[in-house]
Amino acid sequence: LRRRPAGSALHVVVAHDVVWQNYARFLSAAGTGWHPRALLARWRCASVRRDERRIYRHADAVVSFSGKDAALVGRIAGPAARAVVVRPPLADGSEISPRTGDPTPTVLFVGAFDRSVNAEAAMWTMTDIAHRVLAEHPDVRFVFAGARPTPAMQRLASERPGSFVVTGRVDSLEPMYAAADAVLVPLRAGAGVKFKTVEAMVRGIPVISTGVGVEGIVDDRIRAFSVADDAHGLATGLLRALADPAAARREA
Which of 42, 51, 63, 221 has the fewest CB atoms found within 10 Å of its own CB? Predict the structure, then answer.
């Protein structure tokens, strides 16, 4: 709704998420045909792309946190958009420290669960990933740390209280990271740089993630401990990290 201010002020847009990418993934998952879900997905994808194109073209600069998102800005808005990549100083103030706290083998998933991409990933973990790990390591604990967990998450946690812990909002995530043997980022949708991935990596914790969870972060200089896009591959990465936690931390 804003127009350029009078005078020489510059208009800078920060595109933390290129929202069109999220709806494009939603459209891909919805499939084709005349089902209301598919029709809604096509409308959202087209309208969001139109709005973002307008916003990016009228900005003097569009700041993104990764080359991936800057490329998406250019794809949407063309050469009229001036896309700039700003790499945040992500490791400032973070120190790699040994694992502490409760010795129970622990997998951590951090997220605000009123975001559908986090809630869906948590349910996928509970119903399809965790049992593959627990079959070999029945003592492993999966901790889902974050505000507003869904009723479905809480129901599954109540059915397996020794395996699933749903914390709700916590005042600090530091104790959670300190006691984690691995951080799981099983996102299958969403856009932008996933800071839950970065927070674990800068602490030296093994990260097991989907490709969506590490996009814009890993490159030819930086890699995650394990990346897979299916439940079997994610469980395999977790089992490798849990088999020798000390070695996994050294690698991370």
Answer: 221
Please tell me the total number of residues recorded for the chain in this structure: 252
Residue 28, pLDDT score: 76
Say if residue 66 is exposed, middle or buried (CB neighbours under 10 Å; 0-12, 13-18, 19+).
buried
Residue 93 CA: distances (Å) to CA of 90, 152, 203, 204, 239: 9, 36, 10, 13, 30
Structure tokens at 59: 């900005």
Please name which of 109, 195, 189 lies closest in space to residue 153, comparing C-alpha atoms.
Answer: 109
* Longest CA–CA separation in the chain, Å: 66
Which among 125, 241, 145 is positioned nearest to 188, based on CA atoms?
125
Q: What is the pLDDT of residues 129-176, one digit of tens each?
A: 999 999 999 999 999 999 999 999 999 999 999 999 999 999 999 999
Task: Name the DSSP class of 129.
Answer: I
User: Confidence band (pLDDT; 50, 70, 90) for 219?
Assistant: confident
Contacts of 66 (CB under 8 A, 6+ apart): 85, 193, 215, 216, 217
How far apart CA 239 and CA 130 sit, in angstroms, is 10
